């Protein structure tokens, strides 16, 4: 059946590999009949892990790869040297079109470098941004770019705004997604040289819904759907989001445990609170796509459990069905043609 | 008595002026016998406000200023035009050494511009950074720079690290404060051009305790006492801190109110939780100093209540007693002499 969406999964990457990636894959296969998975990694290890589950075996193929790229290995070197690693082999399957998407919880650096080198950028794309979804008061926003290529130019940011808009519209179903430019003030004349140069370019883009500058304070409120920034700033935002959230939640927990009275109260609020905090947990939203490549590359958290991996695979299905790669390439071709 | 610490307070700036600034001044005067305040603003308004309180009148002097600089006014223009504004008049008192410090909850832009233009930078200081204290899991860290002058050079960042270290050591009492450079990874070779250039310079500084790069995720954990970054990044960190905190707390509150069971629990945890969250509230730590000037300029939040203003005034006393301006100027003179 040719309508399967084929995804190559690096089963050996991440803190809980291969157990959690395998479990996530099994769960996704059970839930989505159109999904086909190439599970890439050490065959004996993976087969032993798969034996734990019943799943639609006709839609899973184990692809042997003897090596593993560890977190912390210099990415470029690892990609060049470990040709028989699960990460490299799985990415090559996207390049060769055997698979339309790739998912890994492995080394961010290796996924970013490998995605660009082994899968390659679409024609017209200047830089491939890493674009995770971040939780907000009202839902999620796409934070673009959080990748490893810093010191971007304004033309990059304009492309990020366009790619992000396509993603939010067709993968997340947000009509006419609002695009905001991260800045230190709301006024057009504020900011550093990069954003000052980018602002008028975004204003002229007719194919996006640019709402102007957004201050970091307003990002968690969900004021825009696509949060455009340079990768250094995006990385700071993403990591601070996690850091402030984690510290604050541990403070709340400690506060609840501080007196006998509050301990009793904690027992009562716990179930309701757990549900609420789950909605502010980034892992609920799958991994981050590396956009602008010839195929979809998804980087899931290193600490991903089965649920995030399952969600990443589901995201791949929508992405492929909606032909986001094609839509992005089409849009990039029109580069600047949207302007007067 | 010449040992008074004299502070000029812009009583007309901020969302709750003049009520809260006046209340904060009164509370500080009652608590600190060495404090002397010039309360600058519209005399009739201030006197009426002061009539509400009993306080040591011999240590407060109302200085009349007829104009008010509003938030949102273009700073440079406002400073030049409104010469009889409370902000300009109070800053001039620092310039003329009538007062050793200045506190305002008014327009950030006007305070930053006014501080640099009217008070002036100390000799050797290339750029005056705005350095608020931010709450962490273990206490507070100084985030330097969050000011309005973006696109810094590496030599600026090195000066920020030094000034921040002096502040944390002598005002906050942290011995040998740990200095971290905000980056997107822990390794020396990571980052954008600016931080790559700054890292080796900080490593060579013998008068600071440089611990290397810090990722944004680790800032809330309190891994370092002085968090060095360029102003655009600092602004994003500061505002996102507030934004994520506010959104998360409102989520926690909503979660607690979602079921009858959790509502009862909420009543029980509330007192303990309030105490904990207070420790993560930036307003507890007074305003942000603008360092490297010939006198102390403190910018308090626009939404400051009396407590923050009182704390800002107390901060001014320590700052002046420890002669931080003198220490910074001394340190800047030795610029690069600490290196081999």
Automatic annotation (TrEMBL), chains A, B:
<dbReference type="GO" id="GO:0043811">
    <property type="term" value="F:phosphate:acyl-[acyl carrier protein] acyltransferase activity"/>
</dbReference>
<protein>
    <recommendedName>
        <fullName>Phosphate acyltransferase</fullName>
        <ecNumber>2.3.1.274</ecNumber>
    </recommendedName>
</protein>
<dbReference type="GO" id="GO:0008654">
    <property type="term" value="P:phospholipid biosynthetic process"/>
</dbReference>
<dbReference type="InterPro" id="IPR012281">
    <property type="entry name" value="Phospholipid_synth_PlsX-like"/>
</dbReference>
<comment type="subunit">
    <text>Homodimer. Probably interacts with PlsY.</text>
</comment>
<keyword id="KW-0963">Cytoplasm</keyword>
<keyword id="KW-1208">Phospholipid metabolism</keyword>
<comment type="pathway">
    <text>Lipid metabolism; phospholipid metabolism.</text>
</comment>
<dbReference type="Pfam" id="PF02504">
    <property type="entry name" value="FA_synthesis"/>
</dbReference>
<dbReference type="InterPro" id="IPR003664">
    <property type="entry name" value="FA_synthesis"/>
</dbReference>
<comment type="similarity">
    <text>Belongs to the PlsX family.</text>
</comment>
<comment type="function">
    <text>Catalyzes the reversible formation of acyl-phosphate (acyl-PO(4)) from acyl-[acyl-carrier-protein] (acyl-ACP). This enzyme utilizes acyl-ACP as fatty acyl donor, but not acyl-CoA.</text>
</comment>
<keyword id="KW-0594">Phospholipid biosynthesis</keyword>
<keyword id="KW-0808">Transferase</keyword>
<dbReference type="GO" id="GO:0006633">
    <property type="term" value="P:fatty acid biosynthetic process"/>
</dbReference>
<dbReference type="GO" id="GO:0005737">
    <property type="term" value="C:cytoplasm"/>
</dbReference>
<keyword id="KW-0443">Lipid metabolism</keyword>
<keyword id="KW-0444">Lipid biosynthesis</keyword>
<keyword id="KW-0012">Acyltransferase</keyword>
């Amino acid at each position: 059946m040719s309508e399967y969406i084929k995804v190559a999964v690096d089963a050996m990457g991440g803190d809980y590999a291969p157990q959690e990636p395998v479990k996530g894959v099994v769960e996704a296969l059970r839930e989505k009949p159109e999904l086909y998975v190439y599970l890439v990694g050490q065959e004996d290890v993976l087969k032993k892990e798969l034996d734990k589950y019943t799943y639609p075996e006709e839609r899973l193929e184990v692809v042997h790869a003897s090596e593993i790229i560890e977190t912390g290995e210099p990415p470029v070197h690892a990609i060049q040297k470990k040709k028989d690693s699960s990460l490299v082999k799985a990415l090559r399957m996207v390049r060769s079109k055997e698979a339309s998407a790739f998912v890994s919880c492995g080394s961010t650096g290796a996924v970013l470098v490998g995605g660009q080198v082994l899968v390659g950028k679409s024609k017209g794309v200047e830089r491939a941004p890493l674009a995770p979804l971040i939780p907000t008061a009202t839902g999620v926003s796409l934070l673009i770019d959080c990748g490893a290529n810093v010191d971007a130019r304004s033309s990059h940011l304009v492309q990020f705004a366009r790619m992000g808009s396509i993603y939010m519209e067709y993968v997340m179903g947000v009509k006419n997604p609002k695009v905001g430019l991260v800045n230190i003030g709301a006024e057009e004349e504020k900011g550093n040289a990069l954003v000052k140069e980018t602002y008028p370019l975004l204003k002229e883009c007719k194919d996006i819904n640019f709402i102007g500058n957004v201050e970091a304070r307003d990002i968690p409120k969900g004021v825009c759907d696509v949060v455009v920034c340079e990768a250094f700033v995006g990385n700071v935002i993403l990591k601070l989001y996690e850091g402030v959230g984690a510290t604050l939640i541990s403070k709340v927990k400690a506060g609840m445990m501080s007196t006998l009275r509050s301990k009793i109260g904690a027992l009562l609020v716990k179930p309701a609170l757990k549900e609420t905090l789950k909605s502010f947990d980034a892992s609920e939203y799958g991994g981050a796509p590396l956009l602008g490549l010839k195929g979809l590359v998804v980087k899931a958290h290193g600490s991903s459990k089965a649920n995030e991996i399952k969600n990443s695979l589901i995201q791949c299905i929508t992405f492929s069905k909606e032909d986001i790669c094609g839509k992005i390439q089409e849009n990039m071709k029109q580069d600047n043609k949207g302007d007067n």
